[in-house]
Specification:
binds adenosine monophosphate, binds zinc ion
Length: 494
């Protein structure tokens, strides 16, 4: 398996620190509002990375924080006249609802910055003791010049950054030794949450939070550190500086960054009026459609969000869902006919079973059915190959579509129930690795009914009356009757 590492700007072979185990940290959201669809991209993408690693047999310790102390949270609290804690708790709960809807599994641990202040003070103290940090009137800064490797992740020219940052020195933050020095601890202002420390009553800077939470829950050295590409500089660069100077060893082996989600080819922003929360989108689309949409592009490619592209995602996902429900129907039919046969006391030996030599699949399949199953399993290898290449979900989804096409054209109710269910499981299993739920819901939605009716019309046109009748029966089983009228096919629920 190969993964692209921002640190080396190359795809590298994935080798974990400890065999069979992955220690993974993903920077989580700052909780002052409902999450927007841009925030949902890293959540979905890295949840999928985790699921795939587990599918490969790794035990994954997945840590993702909530930043619950921040200027934006404090501003929102002041606006509403409530405490910062009330704001952050409210939006952590809302975020968890969105995650659940999107089938993003909870992390092994979701640490919150405000509950880890002691660890932050300890790490800052170590950095002070080692000469990597200095205190100016209660504000503690990190001394970037002392860390020779500063800039190794973002591959930036530090001299350019320094000269560009000179303005910072004259606009207020003039106590820093170097424009690239950043805050580890800052003294409180009136009305802000604060904690006592050796330097001042105050609060931690944002970057130190992740270094500390990653160390506490995963250890000094981890396998994967991930987040959106906007975090490469300065956030992740600063995390590396803090952790490596404090611990004296490399921080993370692989740095993974997702590209941004844009809206109608423009950056999403409140001022442009093209800002959408996940909640707003879920009023119009099923959460599975949003997840499918996010995975339809490679995570390192920019992704454009538009109504047309979401509609296309909806149709594509429905093709998979329809194939799965069709297989369920075929499987039901296969067992029903066997049962009917035994009920009337006939001994039915299917031609295939009689003619073909049985080999051991554990499913009791005939040789020809085993061949069909092997054909279906070939797409699993294609899927894995795509995912092994830096988690290429776009190509993995393409493999699922090939499998769907294969199932649609190779299976009918003449096949054994075992084969039909095994192929169905191939599809649902691969989708499951992507966190996509494609199993039928209890009741067919109107859109599903319409899609099946369209498929039946096409089957009739192609003189495939068996398939047309199958669809009519499948709909009848769900209490839906079809009426062929002069204006076309009408339908009603029983
Ligand atoms: P924030 O709450 O701004 O720290 O963001 C939480 C996560 O969402 C970070 O990993 C960001 O990089 C990511 N993120 C924010 N906006 C977008 C976007 N438009 N597209 C993709 N990822 C984003
Ligand atoms: Zn972080």
């Amino acid at each position: 398996m190969r993964v692209y590492n921002t640190l080396s700007k190359k795809k590298e072979e994935f080798v974990t620190l400890e065999p069979g185990k992955v220690k993974m940290y993903v920077c989580g959201p700052t909780v002052y509002n409902l999450i927007h669809i841009g925030n949902a991209r890293p959540m979905i993408v890295f949840d999928t990375v985790r699921r795939y690693l587990e599918h490969k047999g790794y035990e994954v310790n997945y840590v993702s924080n909530f930043t619950d102390v921040d200027d934006k949270i404090i501003a929102k609290a002041n606006e509403e006249g409530v405490s910062s804690q009330e704001i952050s708790e409210r939006y952590i709960a809302e975020c968890q609802k969105d995650m659940e809807a999107l089938n993003v599994r909870p992390a092994t641990t979701h640490p919150r910055a405000t509950q880890e202040i002691d660890g932050m003070i300890d790490m800052i103290q170590t950095l002070m003791d080692k000469g990597y940090a200095y205190d100016v009137d209660g504000t503690v800064y990190f001394r970037t010049r002392k860390f020779r490797e500063y800039g190794k992740l973002s591959h930036k020219n530090l001299d350019d950054l320094r000269s560009g940052g000179r303005s910072l020195l004259v606009t207020g933050e003039d106590q820093k030794e170097d424009p690239l020095d950043f805050v580890l601890w800052k003294p409180k202002k009136e009305g802000e949450p604060s904690w006592p420390s050796p330097w001042s009553d105050g609060r931690p800077g944002w970057h130190i939070e992740c270094s500390v939470m990653s160390k506490k829950y995963l250890g000094e050295e981890i396998d994967i550190h991930a987040g959106g590409e906007d975090l490469i500089f300065p956030h992740h660069e600063n995390e590396i500086a803090q952790s490596e100077c404090c611990n004296g060893r490399p921080f993370a082996k692989y740095w993974l960054h997702n590209a941004f989600l844009n809206i109608d080819n423009r950056k999403m922003s409140k001022s442009l009026g093209n800002f959408f929360t996940v909640r707003e989108i879920l009023e119009k689309y099923d959460a599975q459609v949003l997840r499918f949409f996010m995975l339809s592009a490679h995570y390192r490619s920019p992704l454009n969000f538009s109504a047309d592209l979401m509609d296309a995602a909806k149709n594509a996902l429905e093709r998979i869902q329809n194939a799965v429900s069709n297989l369920s129907y075929l499987a039901e039919n296969a067992s029903a006919s066997e049962k009917a046969a035994s009920d009337i006391g006939e001994t039915v030996v299917s031609e295939k079973t009689a003619d073909d030599t049985q080999t051991d699949t554990g499913l009791g399949l005939s040789a020809s059915e085993q061949e069909i199953l092997a054909g279906a399993k070939a797409f699993e290898a294609k899927f894995d190959e795509a995912m092994d290449d830096d988690f290429n979900t776009a190509d993995a989804i393409a493999a699922v579509f090939e499998l769907v096409k294969y199932a649609n054209s190779n299976l009918s109710s003449d096949n054994s129930k075992e084969l039909i269910l095994a192929v169905r499981e191939e599809i649902t299993g691969l989708c499951g690795i992507l966190g996509l739920i494609v199993e039928e819901k209890e009741e067919l939605l109107d859109a599903d009914v319409e899609a099946l009716i369209a498929e039946r019309q096409a089957a009739r046109k192609a003189r495939n009356f068996a398939r047309a009748d199958e669809i009519r029966d499948q709909l009848a089983a769900q209490g839906i009757t079809l009426l062929d009228t002069r204006e076309g096919v009408k339908w009603k629920r029983a």
